[in-house]
Design a protein that fits this description.
The chain has about 750 residues and is an alpha/beta fold. About 45% of the residues lie in helices and about 10% in strands. It contains 26 helices and 21 strands. The protein starts with a strand and ends in a 5-residue tail after the last helix.
Length: about 750
């Protein structure tokens, strides 16, 4: 007898395989193989063997025969067990088949999605990362999440971000404590690194630390106040150059009692030797310029994560009024303006963020107003820097004397709110532990369909009330999903992220208490997607109209209220400290997050369409609108857009961004740009960005807003740089997914 396998291969009949499958079915019911069951199994296997002599059967046909014989016996309970066993095996095969198909698609770079605009999925490293990601996502769904969490994710209700990173137990984002690492040095797996002793070394180490930390997590890394951080190293370099002039040029010993931490503005330097002072200042400025240039090139070339991914880096600056800090801010902005490479391309990383602060840099007469104007010039040409509002009402309680507590953010929009576990507004050493996103249009459709065949008095209000009920349930489910993931991350060994825990880059780590001692200071972010589309489903308009804004505020208030409640819930965990089991108590920092949804805006829409089809003003495009943003096709002025979104940004504590689209004319009208940025700050926008066209010819380097042909050399090889979330990325026509590409095409310039 021959048997045709599922893959088409023909093999000889093997009676033992039937016996083994039957044994599994009997054990499932009887918990053991009895003498009676052994006889029954042998009898069935032998009868199939005899009946099939000189015939050819498929595997499925043999299994059908086994089912019939069991059903005709007195062991119908075993028959049921065998049927379930068979079904489960089929499901597992289908899973493997689906996974194999996905792997093949990844390896052959078919239908490239570019889930992350910073990764080229066609490259060797990109393909390796994509394949491993698919396998890990499958593992996370089946082994890390409870049934309800899994269903919420698969049913397009609550999206758990970065499932592959969930599986390995890593966290999302981190604001790195550069002050401590540069001052005291740090350890790596292979060696230890001494403290920085010059501005050049300090900037090199910033790039190194960014890259090392990015390997410990899956999200962005940032510096919260780089202008303040670099003060000691500017002073060290200045003192070195000053000393060199005295000893090498004038061939004298420096016999004056200087300390290398003395401010470069101290009159003692000038009084002692004016020439040496001017020389040291010039050399320090040159060294600083070269150091910044080196950091920009490093962060745009060293692809140290996911095979070929650049770390998502952000640097905040602009508030330090000391001469050293001002020098650093100026050098960072001028480095941005200069660009990188042969044709001085716009630097993708780091994302520069200028921290606006009343009395410091916003108005004429402020000590850093000149730097604010320089930042505006850079934004008009390079899209960076973006702008953070230090005086944002959501950052109340910060210490004016401690820049570590100033409002800072990451390029994407992630921010650290108030820490319930004792750090307050401290930003360094904290980050977003993990995010989820509630896909609100799915809930809106459920609410709408619920009343399709039910009589009701007020259809619209009843639908809204039911939606709010569903949303409330989803927010609670989101909380449970985040706690579930938080516990999984906390179960990991500190050896999994040695650099992070050995060097305390995540603040608060106490070895005896485990990594929960550090993770508890981070944020559990509850995000949202598609507010505009949700409102369209429920009431037929979005939040650009008063009726839509009224409901939008009701929705956002629910998010805010629930996160505030969750943040006050005390959690308990038994841990061992000094050989004693103690009740470890802590809070969790839940926050409302206006999700970037770089890939989700597209994939969630595709699933939505599969279920509900094409709905006007909802699913008649390839993407959902990010979080609470005004739809990109709305024709309005920058002021109008700021007015609308500023009514909602105050509900978010875990991060948000507002941006406006301008045309290229802003390069020649920096006063208008200044007015827009200051207006956003005055309207209490926490994080603000400007989008302007940034096209460059890859053949000659000509830069301006272009069509398909370079007006300088006639080339068609044009790089079209656009903002994807808060970060920039490469040419949007190749780096963005289909949804984001369409979004860019639909963006209306605000005039």
């Amino acid at each position: 007898m021959q048997v045709t396998k599922r893959d088409g291969r023909i093999v000889q009949f093997n009676k033992d395989k039937i016996i083994k499958a039957l044994e599994q079915a009997f054990i499932e019911i009887d918990k053991e193989i009895t003498e009676d069951s052994k006889q029954k199994i042998e009898a069935i296997a032998t009868s199939i063997e005899k009946e099939s002599e000189n015939k050819e059967f498929s595997v499925e046909e043999i299994q059908d025969i086994i089912e019939k014989k069991l059903m005709s016996s007195n062991r119908k309970d075993v028959a049921k067990s065998y049927i379930l066993y068979r079904n489960n095996r089929t499901l597992e095969r289908n899973k493997r088949s689906k996974l194999n198909k996905n792997i093949t698609r990844r390896l052959k770079a078919i239908n490239v999605e570019n889930q992350n605009a910073n990764v080229d999925e066609r490259s060797f490293g990109g393909k390796m990362g994509a394949v491993s990601s698919d396998v890990l996502k499958e593992y996370a769904l089946n082994n890390c999440m409870c049934r309800k969490s899994k269903e919420n994710h698969l049913n397009n209700k609550i999206y758990m971000h970065d499932l592959d990173s969930y599986a390995i137990g890593s966290h999302n984002c981190l604001t790195i404590p550069f002050d401590d690492l540069l001052a005291h040095g740090f350890n790596t797996r292979q060696t230890d690194v001494r403290p920085a002793n010059s501005i050049n070394t300090a900037f090199q180490l910033v790039a190194v630390i960014f890259q090392l930390q990015s390997l410990q997590q899956f999200g962005g890394v940032s510096a919260s106040h780089l202008d303040w951080t670099m003060i000691p190293y500017v002073r060290k370099s200045f003192y070195k150059h000053y000393k060199d002039y005295i000893e090498l040029v004038e061939e004298q010993e420096l016999d004056y009692s200087f300390h290398n931490a003395l401010s470069i503005d101290e009159s003692d330097y000038k009084i002692y030797n004016e020439k040496a002072y001017r020389y040291a200042l010039k050399k320090t400025e040159k060294e600083l310029k070269q150091a910044v240039e080196g950091m920009y090139h490093n962060l745009n070339t060293l692809q140290s994560r996911s095979g070929n991914q650049l770390p998502f880096t952000s640097i905040n600056y602009g508030t330090c009024t000391l001469p050293e800090g001002r020098m650093v801010t100026k050098a960072l902005i001028e480095g941005s303006i200069k660009g990188v490479g042969k044709f001085h391309k716009t630097s993708i990383f780091p994302c520069g963020i200028f921290q606006c602060m009343e009395g410091i840099n916003r108005k004429k007469g402020d000590p850093n107003y000149d730097l604010f104007k320089l930042a505006l010039k850079s934004t008009a040409q390079r899209l960076y820097p973006n702008y953070a509002n230090v005086d944002w009402s959501g950052n109340e309680g910060y210490d004016i004397n401690d820049p570590k507590t100033y409002f800072s953010t990451m390029g994407c929009r992630t921010a650290n709110g108030w820490d319930a576990n004792g750090f307050g507004q401290l930003k360094d050493g904290r980050g977003n532990i993990c995010p989820v996103t509630i896909i609100m249009p799915t809930l809106a459709m459920e609410a709408t369909h619920y009343y399709d065949d039910k009589p009701c008095g007020d259809l619209e209000n009843d639908t809204i009330d039911f939606f709010m009920q569903l949303l409330d349930e989803a927010i609670h489910d989101a909380k449970d999903m985040l706690i579930e993931r938080f516990n999984w991350i906390c179960s990991q060994s500190p050896e999994s992220a040695r650099f992070m825990y050995e060097n305390n880059t995540m603040a608060g780590y106490v070895p005896e208490e485990g990594i929960i001692s550090a993770l508890k200071h981070g944020t559990l972010a509850i995000g949202q997607l598609g507010l505009a589309e949700t409102l369209q489903i429920l009431i037929g308009c979005d939040h650009t109209e008063p009726k839509g804004m009224e409901l939008a505020k009701r929705i956002e208030q629910l998010f805010k209220d629930r996160c505030a409640e969750f943040k006050k819930e005390l959690h308990h965990k038994e841990i061992i400290i000094n050989n004693k089991t103690v009740d470890y108590t802590y809070y969790l920092n839940f926050g409302v997050y206006y999700t970037p949804a770089e890939n989700l805006c597209y994939t969630a829409m595709q699933k939505f369409k599969e279920q509900y089809g094409e709905i006007p003003n909802v699913s008649d495009k390839e993407f959902f609108t990010n979080s609470m943003h005004v739809p990109v096709w709305k024709n309005m002025s920058p002021i109008q857009k700021i007015d609308i979104e500023s009514q909602l940004t105050g509900y978010s504590s875990a991060g948000c961004i507002t941006y406006v689209e301008l045309d290229g004319s802003v390069k020649n009208n920096l006063k208008a740009l200044e007015t827009i940025v200051n207006y956003a700050m005055d309207k209490d926008i926490p994080y603000f960005a400007i989008n302007v066209p940034n096209d460059m010819c890859n053949d000659c380097g000509y830069t301006d807003d272009m069509n398909d042909t370079c007006p300088e050399c006639g080339s068609h090889d044009i790089r079209r740089l656009r903002r994807v979330t808060g970060y920039l990325t490469g040419d949007y026509k190749t780096a963005f997914n289909l949804g984001k590409q369409q979004e860019v095409e639909m963006r209306v310039k605000h005039k």
